[in-house]
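Appendix B.2, paired examples.
Example (i):
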Amino acid sequence: MPDVLGNGFIDLRSDTVTHPSPAMRKAMFEAELGDDVFGDDPTVNALQERAAQLLGKEAALFVASGSMANLVSQLAHLGRGQETIAGASTHIVDDEQAGHAVVVGTSIRQMRENPDGTFDLDGPDGLGEAFRDPADPHEPITGLVAIENTHAHSMGQPLTLAYTEAVAGIAHAHGVPLHVDGARFFNASVALGLTPAQLAEPADSVAFCLSKGLACPIGSMVVGSRDFIHRAWRGRKLVGGGMRQVGVLAAAGLVALSDGPGGMIARLAEDHATARRLAEGLAVMDGVESAGGLAQPTPGPLDPARATTNFVVFRVSRDRVAFLEALKSRGVLMVAYNHGTVRAVTHYGVTPADIERVLAACAGALRETTTETTTETTTMER
């Protein structure tokens, strides 16, 4: 099966490179349309109802991107001058151009994260001690706790229901809501063997992307209470996210979230299996090392067991730029990731046979390149 670029490449740079399935294209072509700003696009309304039902929440909102989903969620939860508690490497902190400060007018208290993507809940550096004292006029008021599931920088680790419940319990005890940046939320639910509603239950709001593993061309969803979604809807308009006949895009989301043969949720297990096979094959290659940092803190060989969803993050004892170029010359695309690593993301359209071709290309690229390493600026997507 040719890759999504249509030119023979196997593109593992991200799960954002997917193109819509034939069922999605047909649904988009035939979509019944209205004006969503007036609330009368029936396809958007159906998608929002489906998303809310799937995650067990009252209401949902269709937005243009994952960054917008997080942004309007913060606008809905927070007042200017308040503070969010979030992991130090999460997308809200690292990869959204400080939208929390520029647009929402809030700060973030960053938590040191563990190799499984969690942060400590107890102790002097735990979540319980991170809340500000509202009686102290020098401090901002804590208004939100946010977690990222799956957690990208830990190599896509899924955060468990027990952890999510514990974080929510502490947040709620302080009168603060919990937001889950679930760009790859369904990857987490599939990996954990939970329904989306079970995993979402402790959270006050969840954002998830349609345009990653679910293979839609554009869009993300925010779910929560009706009051929260009303505030997020106003926030969406504020940041220029009011769209008109957007049912042409929402139609793809309805297919992706369906229980039918065109649905994209259950098939995420295939991506997890291909990622594990890729990690297993890389782990035995001379020149492939553990990623370090949260992706694999113990130095040494790559641990395939960390490929629990669709991320494989590793380091090469070679010139990284040359390695990536050598891969490209062999028809495989990966991307430079944080802290001098390489990231490969499996997704719709990548088959087990493709992974064997990728492994052969990696072996050849490792033989071809030098042992000098480089570190350069990387680009993230949401």
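Example (ii):
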Amino acid sequence: MIYLASSSPRRAELMRQIGVEFDIIEVDIDETPRVDESIEKLVLRLCQEKVIQGRLQVPGRSVQNLVLAADTLIGLQGKILGKPASNLKCCEMLQLLSGKTHQVYSAVALMNQEGEVNARLSVNDITFRPLKSEEIKQYCDTAEPHDKAGAYAIQGMAAIFIKHLSGSYSSVMGMPLYETAELLQQAGYRFQVK
């Protein structure tokens, strides 16, 4: 059995896309960065902590189960852009991203039957076209960006803002599928093409 330690509908959708059957367990961890912690180290630590917390919530805590988790952060010139707390913060973040290239850091971690945690990191570059103030405001007035790191969702209306993507689309959505499949295969999971 595979448990996905995430309540993200996007991650669940991506797991189904590659034919993985799973159950969801919700985890809640402190996502506060440590002093001088790089974005790469933070996103890897967060998904590893989610896996460990997730294993504690597996029914019966059976070691026969695999626990998988992912985390995604947006970085612009070394600064983390989290989820906007308000419409104003949403507009400010998108104004910062306007006309610039930023990074999307997605990490995935898996705890295998032996209790070992392995993780992978995917770093992707996204370039936004210059955005007009009015379109930023209109987008922020929708519900879409408010629970998203960096105040946008590539799979939604913000797709029209993206001039260039270098990397993995699934990773930018929040679940790097190549790295996820790699971890699952290493743990003995066999993918079946249907």
